Amino acid sequence: MLDIVDAEDRVIGQAARGEAYARGLRHRCAFILARNPAGEVFVHRRTATKLVFPGLYDMFVGGVVGAGESYDEAALREAEEELGVSGLPQPTPLFRFLYEGDGTRGSWWSAVYEVTFDLPVRPQEEEIDWHAFLSLDELERRLGEWAWTPDGLDAFARWRARR
Fold first, then answer.
1. Phi first, then psi: what are they for 19, rounded to 5°?
2. What is the pTM of this model?
3. CB under 8 Å to 93, separation ≥6 — which residues?
């Protein structure tokens, strides 16, 4: 179940995840920029079976915030799940924005976080089919070459503008 929220990020109801996506209901997501001590960013390609943006590259790990769950709780849970680690430091909240996309998939409030860690990753095979840590320069070079999740590109542009 997900909390359904209004344009000001206030909870106005709840719906199952599938229903929220099918009806384009506004919900909440957490995006975590995961970096190693060298400053490289964890980049991955989503599996072809993902409900949203299958097969696209992303520079964030994360996902939906469950009903009654805080953004902070979701950020830690999602980062540990997708990276396949435990004992991750609590991700640092950076900013929030309303992702509105192209209007075909609805919109979601997006809380962006960053975490630096030095743990071996074991990404979930059902969610990630390729991964690597890339320097920011390498990541920037790949932006025009690879097909990226549009919400990840939006969040990354906002992250870069704040640096």
1. -65, -40
2. 0.94
3. 71, 72, 75, 111, 112, 113
Cα distances (Å, whole numbers) of residue 108 to 38, 94, 141? 31, 17, 28
Is 155 within 8 Å of 110 (Cβ atoms)? yes
Check: CB of residue 93 under 8 Å from CB of residue 111: yes
Q: Tokens 């990226």 appear where?
A: 148
pLDDT digits (tens, 9 = 90+) for 87-131: 999 999 999 999 997 666 778 999 999 999 999 999 988 889 999
Contacts of 109 (CB under 8 A, 6+ apart): 5, 9, 26, 27, 28, 29, 96, 97, 98, 99
Q: Which of 156, 132, 131 is nearest to 40 (CA)?
A: 132
Q: Helices then strands (H, E): number in the chain? A: 4, 9
Calculate the CA 145 to chain-centre distance. 20
- Asked whether 53 and 46 are in contact (CB, 8 A), the reply is yes
Question: Among the residues of 84-149, which ranges form H helices?
Answer: 136-142
Please give the backbone phi and psi of residue 60, each rounded to the nearest 5 degrees, phi first: -120, 145
